[in-house]
What does this fold into?
Amino acid sequence: VLPHVFDRFYKSDAARTRSEGSGLGLAITAENVRLHGGTVRAANGPDGGAVFTVVLPLPRDGAPDGATDAAEEDRA
It folds into this structure.
């Protein structure tokens, strides 16, 4: 399941029977994060469910667009 959760229109077998969603939410999220220069990951939660991690670059004050502080990225 996890390799496909960011695919457009993807729904797990269990979600197909109980959800009316289109299967676009995580695909849209992944694209927005990518457009902002970040990454998004999904993992199985330790007690079930899922854990989603979004990492976005944090620009330094006064830095040109796209410049980031590596220490700030590590903390995000």
About this structure: The radius of gyration is 16 Å.
